[in-house]
Amino acid sequence: MAHAFASLETAGPVAVWVIVLSFIFVECAFIFGLFLPGDSLLFAAGVVLATHNSELSAWALSLVALIVAVVGNQVGYFIGRGTGTRVLARKGGKVLNRQNLKRAGDFLDRRGFWAVVLARWLPWIRTLAPMIAGAARMDIRRFTLATTLGAIAWVPTLVLAGYYGAGILQQLPWLETAALVVSIAFFLGGTGWGIWRYRQEMQKPIDETVEVAS
């Protein structure tokens, strides 16, 4: 395990970029992303880049990941617009069920524009919101503006918090290493748990009685 963490710690900025951009796109675009730990990934990316003193890379990653998050949500929007939300709910699902889908739909119905902005900070609503907005035929220009504002507040905040937070800890090498290990472990554990939960949910039949509309 120590060797594995050492390998992750010495992973180059390019590897960090590939992992972050791939995961953020999937989380923002597809239902599988509902189970991915996007928040901890962005923070961990900042911590890893800090170990390489890659400040420029951290800022550049924040910008590019922000764009990818917006593009991913656009994909999710058009998926929802084309398929609706009926296929999302599963009978007996722990996460993908009619209750959670209704809660997400009610959240968007009450808050409208600002719900899409705030959804970036709400893990499972972050993935469902674009699909529900698309199914409800939310104006694409309003949706794009809202999801862009949300991404601006979400992506750079977490990446740069990880980067500069780790930088402060450089005076205490053992604490910096501990922060790196915890961040990566949380990300790996969250991803493994997410894959397992996704497989469990997808094995359940579709609840065809559910359709969220506005």
Show the helix and strand layout.
Layout (H helix, E strand, L loop, with lengths): L1 H8 L3 H17 L8 H14 L3 H29 L14 H14 L1 H6 L4 H13 L4 H29 L4 H30 L12
Helix pairs in contact: 2-3, 2-4, 3-8, 3-9, 4-7, 4-8, 5-7
Largest sheet: none
Structural class: mainly alpha
Mean pLDDT: 77
What's the number of extended β-strand segments? 0
Distance between the termini: 49 Å
Strand content: under 5%
Low-confidence regions: 1-8
- List the total number of helices: 9
Over the alpha carbons, how many angstroms does the gyration radius reach? 18 Å
Order of helices and strands: HHHHHHHHH
Shape: globular
Helix content: over 70%
Question: Your description of this structure?
Answer:
This protein has 214 residues and is an all-alpha fold. It is 75% helix and 0% strand. Helix 2 (13-29) runs parallel beside helix 4 (55-83), helix 3 packs antiparallel against helix 9 and helix 4 runs antiparallel to helix 8. The protein is globular, with a radius of gyration of 18 Å. The N and C termini lie far apart (49 Å). Residues 1-8 have low confidence and may be disordered.
